[in-house]
């Protein structure tokens, strides 16, 4: 193993609630992991035994990661297996309340078709780990349809093709 190359610094993180829910830990972990993978290739760590790979990873990652590793109570074949486990630990922690607020606060844009709007809501739903689509999408679409129906009743409004609402002459 070539020791001339300096390893990345130990992974440091603040596990406060605000840092966890903002996604900072996930971003910082991703950056650190990429640095470690570059280091791993540069020193040809993949040529070493699995035990050496895991121990080098734990040494470079630092004390906090070693404490987390002890909580896993598992055996890991390679450093890559352990990195995947750390991905699960440091990734995907989201504030469900904030994600729901973002979801329900999203309104259809003027230049956006209904299909684009629904697709964007689905993407937000998946990012926010919200339940199945009908539960959350139906109320938003139904509310939109109520607006369209009420506008149909008004004079001088006509629902054009593509569900765009525009003030025009009523040609019925």
Total count of strands: 2
Looking at the structure, what is the overall shape?
Answer: elongated
- Low-pLDDT segments: 161-172
Major sheet = 2 strands, antiparallel
Q: In angstroms, what separates the terminal alpha carbons?
A: 81 Å
Organism: Papilio machaon (Old World swallowtail butterfly)
Protein name: Retrotransposon gag domain-containing protein
Structure description:
This protein is mainly α and about 170 residues long. It folds into two domains: about 15-90, no CATH class; about 100-160, no CATH class. Helices cover about 60% and strands about 5% of the residues. The chain has helices spanning about 15-20, 25-40, 50-60, 65-70, 80-90, 95-105, 115-125, 135-155; strands at about 155-160, 165. A two-stranded antiparallel sheet has the order 1-2. Helix 6 (about 95-105) runs antiparallel to helix 7 and helix 7 runs antiparallel to helix 8 (about 135-155). It starts with 16 loop residues before the first helix and ends in a 5-residue tail after the last strand. The model is unreliable at about 160-170 (pLDDT under 50).
Which terms summarize this structure?
172 residues, elongated, mainly alpha, 60% helix
